Amino acid sequence: MTTVRILSLIVGVVLLVVAIIAIICFPSADKGDFIRMAKMLPEDIGTFSFVDVAMLRADNDLNSMWTLVKDNYLGQGVYGENVSKITGFGMAGSDNSLMLYKGDFDFNQITSAIEQNSVESYDYKGVKIWTDRNALSTAVIDDVVFIGKSEDVKLCIDLHKGEGSSLYDSKDAKDIIGRLPGGYVLGVMVNESFSARSYGIMAAGMAVSKQNGNISDTSLFKFNGSAAAQKYMTAVKSQMPSGYDVTQDGQYLTVSSTSAILSPNEEAYNLAYNDLQNAVTAYAANNSYVFPTINGTVNISGYDLHIVDICPLLNYSEGGMLTAVPGGVASINGSDNDNCDAGCDGCLDTNHYIWAIDEYGYLYSTCVGANCSAQNTDGYQGVWP
């Protein structure tokens, strides 16, 4: 596999949530709304990623990216015409179970729409909570709409009422956020239980921006000491592909790169990749770390990998978090050879990609069909979908 994936195996889940949409190219931005939302989240939430939607929409070069984000992460939902007024969007929690939306909303319209889509509502510490048919709870705190699990929404209300500490109150989170550059995508992860602590990583963050027509991508790690940071840098630096710069500053390690802006089709591939990777990880976390696979395997770069079973990822009651099959997923005649063979619809014979995972749950793809530039090679291969 590629050296980037080797690094991923070392990093584990540290940047998984942070990098949900980090590969989308964004111009520079300040960190004001990111910090404000971090202050509205309870410290135990652990992970938070933020997209500055207003700046994304304002960049003419990124209109297609705004469409992808809107269709895959926002949608119309309870917002109706207010979706065009969203200025900031956040995802929090290890399984992205809590969504935050900030915007120049007509809150009378929004609350009316929320009411119509809810099955019940109740008061919690002076804040109204609505529950929908999928058992998701919605509340409006100041000018931010929160949607997620009931317990998470209540924790945010508790914090709003002055009870508990925020994610931004965490010293590790504040240290990471303070050192991150501005960006259209910003993320931080601080969690006592994440596996990277075995490497001495206390926290991680990411910032993505567009500078001089290129993508600037910064990943930042905070270790429990300079010795741990040095050991980690020695382990990963030789595995980094060209174009990546790894630097150490005491207990902090920064991995940065600059790359050309991707085509809309490459972006679409990356978005589908992120949707599936996060859905697979969330499913495993909710199912005793059993990964969703079918019986078949596919060979990618010389490795026989298990084909992902997309079907349970579409079922909320089974721990799934996809609302639809992501774009590009191929349907192939026969059994146990594509992602929908377990019995769900959504894979198309006009698509080109089969998705598979290794024993650790990391996602890879292969392109099928005459239009593919190379068979059995991981990644986007010049055709979409």
Low-confidence stretches: 1-29
**First and last CA, distance:** 23 Å
Q: Which percent range describes the beta-strand content?
A: 25-35%
Structural category is alpha+beta
Q: H/E order of the elements?
A: HHEHHEEHEEEEHHEEEHEEHEEEE
Main attributes?
385 residues, alpha+beta, twelve-stranded antiparallel sheet, four-stranded antiparallel sheet, 9 helices, globular, disordered N terminus
In short:
This protein has helices spanning 3-11, 32-39, 53-58, 63-74, 107-116, 150-160, 171-179, 226-237, 264-286, and strands at residues 47-51, 86-92, 98-103, 118-124, 127-132, 137-141, 144-148, 185-189, 201-211, 214-223, 244-249, 252-260, 293-300, 303-308, 353-357, 363-367.
Structural description of this entry:
By secondary structure, this protein is of the alpha+beta class. It has two domains: 1-261, no CATH class; 264-367, no CATH class. The chain contains nine helices and 16 strands. It has helices at residues 3-11, 32-39, 53-58, 63-74, 107-116, 150-160, 171-179, 226-237, 264-286; strands at residues 47-51, 86-92, 98-103, 118-124, 127-132, 137-141, 144-148, 185-189, 201-211, 214-223, 244-249, 252-260, 293-300, 303-308, 353-357, 363-367. A twelve-stranded antiparallel β-sheet has the order 4-5-6-7-3-2-1-8-9-10-12-11, sandwiched between helices. Strands 13-14-15-16 form a four-stranded antiparallel β-sheet, covered by helices on one side. Helix 4 runs parallel beside helix 9.
